[in-house]
Specification:
Chain lengths: 352, 312
């Protein structure tokens, strides 16, 4: 006799040759029917927990997600007084930004964003790792603590102070003042003609030297603090690994190459992902302070997409700024998600 | 038995020490420079004669000027207000939210986490954020002052509640709360503790290091915040609610040649050497609170950063 294969939800009665609903299935159906009731019950039981979530969500909706609603301005024409009057423009604003009138301002700003971030990563990323490896060599706890206190400190100095001090040390001779201390030192040790020509303009306000100074101050600010994570990874390497390597005849360089670097690699990859993710969100506060407007000598290299957008104030141009910056941030988001995916596939470490 | 140090090891050690000492010296040099310039002779400051130690005849006039400047202290008190109230506000909603997110039983946990983490990936940008602050300011003034002019309310409050958000800090707190063993929570629950009591009596004491770190991060970013405070108060023309960073930058821009575009006729202080020395004095005053608390919290944040780690 033909018998259905349905043991998971029906019982077969041999005597009568009929099927009936199995007990497990009845429980399952009951659960399914009461799903909303049980959901409601858990919600009710843990209502305090959900209430705790409310302030955070409110703050994030109001000041992180509502600004995203303002992005719709990128798809509207700007030349109307109130935002509700503005007709939809489709991708017109984007066309203006990419190939139209604004392209001559947008693309240099985009290029600056990328170059500043790329050089920052290239020169800034190895620095904390080097610091961490070197800190590991200092066996005296007191000496190391003193050095660490010094190198972490710049992270906590405000951008206004950092930029003001950088301007002072690289100052030109405006207003009858003399050239800044570090500029003067550079003038003494360097024979470069361009450097000597630009010394009086203030090196920080020249297109030639702005980027270098910006990146040096960035390293000054962040390298020490960023080394904390790497230092923790370096001291986690077991002393027996070093001993084993030494017995095998490994010198200092070989120990670095085969013991330390592999041990801290996962940390390095995670930190690299974070940095690549932030590649297109260079610190606009600092760049704004170093170059608040187009009258500054470093405008051509110091303007990034954020500061360019910030400088477009009237409603018509605002729409272009929003469109340009939105593109920049979307590419940044793709970068972080992409880097994360690659890292997850390559080494089982990922951030999110 | 002590192993003999190899040559390569010795060389490496020497390079390490040399490099670290130079880097550490570089890190504190600008701060010493500011301190020295504050006490240096005005002409020495003007001629950039200060290298490391105060140059020329020592003077206390710059110190006195800042000490007696009422505008400086008004902005200083604004910053103190924003830092204290703002940090407490950020800590309250971050701890509550992180505690709820750390519970596996909460519904839509992945969704809420994504909601939080997404703000680290994508931000609307400078202009939309500014438009948002403007409309928030209008709503606040409609409620509290009955007008649509943002300048009618004290914008310190807008700075306090709407700025200084940081999703990374919430993730740090959440990870720390997840590390608390669930047995302790169950024990407390059996003893009749409510949700809030479990948080305040169990979780917060057990995550002290992380909370201290996060409070430090919030506090520092509040103390140092410039851009948004400047944009919002600047748009409303409300200089009495300027934080000290905004006031300091304004003073430096107006009176010294550091930021370029110097115009002596517009300056409040005609002597540029004096003005620059005063600017350094302001820089030192603005750094003092950070330098004072820094040694005490230093050990906390190194611990907290590593404990928080990165995981999902």
């Amino acid at each position: 006799m033909f018998k259905l294969k349905c043991d998971d939800f029906l019982d077969y009665d041999e005597a009568t040759g009929t099927y009936s609903m199995s007990a497990e299935q009845q429980v399952r159906d009951e659960t399914e029917r009461n799903k909303w009731k049980t959901t409601g019950f858990t919600l009710l039981k843990d209502w305090r927990l959900y209430l705790m979530l409310v302030p955070m969500i409110l703050v994030y909706v109001l000041w992180k997600y509502l600004p995203m609603y303002e992005l719709t301005a990128a798809f509207r024409y700007g030349d109307f007084p109130t935002s509700s009057d503005r007709p939809w423009a489709g991708i017109n604003n984007f066309q203006t930004v990419f190939v139209g009138d604004q392209a001559v301002y947008f693309w240099p700003a985009f290029r600056n964003t990328f170059i500043t971030a790329f050089y920052g990563l290239l020169f800034g990323f190895p620095m904390p790792i080097i610091l961490a490896l070197f800190f590991n060599e200092v066996k005296s706890n007191i000496a190391r603590s003193i050095m660490q206190v010094c190198v972490y400190l710049p992270k906590f100095i405000s951008t206004v102070i950092v930029t003001s001090l950088a301007m002072a040390l690289f100052a030109g001779s405006e207003g009858g003042t003399s050239v800044g201390v570090i500029s003067r030192l550079l003038g003494k040790i360097s024979s470069s003609q361009t450097l000597h020509d630009k010394l009086n303009d203030g090196l920080i306000y020249t297109t030639e030297y702005f980027r270098s100074i910006y990146i040096i101050t960035d390293i000054w600010e962040h390298a020490g603090y960023d080394s904390i994570v790497f230092f923790a990874a370096v001291i986690a390497v077991s002393p027996t690994s070093y001993e084993a390597a030494q017995i095998d005849g490994a010198g200092k360089m070989a120990q670095m190459r085969y013991v330390v670097i592999p041990s801290i690699l996962s940390t390095v990859i995670i930190m690299l992902i974070m940095k690549i993710g932030g590649l297109l969100s260079v610190g606009y506060e600092k760049l704004y302070l170093l170059c608040p407007g187009s009258t500054y000598g470093n405008y051509a290299v110091a303007t990034v997409v954020s500061t360019w957008a910030n400088n477009l104030s009237d409603p018509i141009n605002q729409a272009y700024g929003i469109a340009g910056e939105m593109t920049n941030n979307l590419i940044g988001m793709i970068l972080v998600i992409g880097a994360n995916t690659i890292a997850r596939k390559a080494s089982d470490v990922s951030l999110y | 038995m002590k192993r003999k140090m190899e040559v390569s090891e010795l060389i490496f050690k020497i390079i390490a020490y040399f490099f670290l000492i130079v880097f550490a010296a570089m890190c504190i040099y600008p701060l010493i420079f500011a301190l020295s310039s504050m006490f240096s002779d005005w002409d020495a400051v003007k001629e950039s004669k200060v290298v490391l130690w105060p140059a020329g005849k020592l003077q206390l006039d710059s110190f006195k000027y800042v000490f007696n400047s009422s505008r400086f202290w008004v902005s200083y008190s604004n910053t103190l207000f924003v830092t204290f109230i703002g940090t407490i506000w950020c800590l309250i909603y971050s701890i509550l939210g992180a505690y709820a997110l750390s519970k596996k039983r909460i519904m839509g946990r992945h969704g809420w986490n994504f909601f939080l983490v997404f703000t680290m990936w994508f931000s609307a940008g400078v202009v939309p954020q500014f438009l948002n602050y403007q409309s928030t300011g209008k709503v606040m003034s409609t409620i509290f002052a009955g007008s649509t002019n943002m300048a009618d309310i004290d914008l310190k409050w807008l700075i306090v509640i709407a700025m200084g958000m940081n999703a990374t800090n919430i993730v740090l707190l959440r990870n720390s709360f997840e590390g608390v063993p669930s047995e302790i929570e169950e024990a407390a629950r059996i003893d009749g503790a409510t949700e809030l009591q479990i948080l305040t009596k169990v979780y917060i004491p057990m995550s002290k290091a992380t909370i201290a770190t996060v409070a430090l991060f919030f506090g520092i970013s509040r103390w140092n915040g410039y851009f948004w405070a400047y944009k919002v108060t600047g748009a409303a023309g409300q200089s009495y609610s300027w934080p000290v960073q905004v006031y300091m930058r304004d003073f430096i821009q107006l009176n010294t040649s550091l930021t370029g575009n110097y115009n002596q006729d517009l300056a409040d202080i005609p002597n540029i050497g004096e003005a620059t020395s005063i600017a350094y004095a302001m820089v030192v005053f603005a750094m003092v609170p950070i330098l004072v608390i820094y040694p005490f919290i230093q050990k906390y944040f190194a611990k907290g950063v590593n404990m928080g780690g990165v995981k999902e």
